[in-house]
Amino acid sequence: MHSLISRQAVVTVDPWCVLVGGVGDVPAGIDLLVPLQVWLDARFILLERQGRVGVRLEPGDDPALIAGDVDCLSLVAVNFPSFTDGRGFSIARLLRERHGWRGELRAIGPLTRDVLFYLARCGFDSFELREGEDLAAALSEFAAFDEVYQGAGDRAAPFDRTASAGAAGASA
């Protein structure tokens, strides 16, 4: 079983269930995470049932396909199937910056704690870690760096701008 953390805390109970089987097999009232194709095929059925609905995106999925649904969904989970597949970072930025996603954005897959800082910078706010990760140590990763060197989805000012602003203020 994977462990789940947010940017602030360990999540002890994950209310989301991953769809296994058909949409008609799911009891009402359960928060349901479905693959993109299921969402596209059964959107109206899923919206009529009780319980929240989330979509799971794979690295090859186009986030623009859910751009018109950002007000209907409660969670978007982006899968990172391997350490070397970084397409999920781009999906996160597109969802946050181009498609207006303001809800929970979860990174899932065999994640290690050393990528959490970068995932958070791209807009992820919850993270499913691989089994055996030290969750307390994982939470400390969000403060791993005091400065950043380039802009990202979190809007943190890059180091050179911060340093320039400080130098300009000191000479004034």
Which structural traits does this protein have?
alpha/beta, 5 helices
Polypeptide structure, described:
The protein is of the alpha/beta class. The chain is 29% helix and 21% strand. It has five helices and eight strands. It has helices spanning 36-48, 87-98, 116-121, 135-140, 159-171; strands at 3-6, 10-11, 16-18, 31-35, 53-57, 75-79, 104-111, 126-129. The protein has an eight-stranded mixed β-sheet. The radius of gyration is 18 Å and the shape is globular. The chain starts with a strand and ends with a helix.
The whole-angstrom Rg is 18 Å
What coarse outline follows from CA principal-axis ratios? globular
Structural class: alpha/beta
Work out the helix count: 5
Mean pLDDT: 86
- Point out poorly predicted stretches: none
> How far is it from the N-terminal to the C-terminal residue, by CA?
57 Å
Number of strands: 8
Q: How do the SSEs run, as a string of H and E? A: EEEEHEEHEHEHH
Spatial strand order of the main sheet:
2-1-8-7-6-5-4-3
Largest sheet: 8 strands, mixed
Residue fraction in strands? 15-25%
Helix content: 25-40%
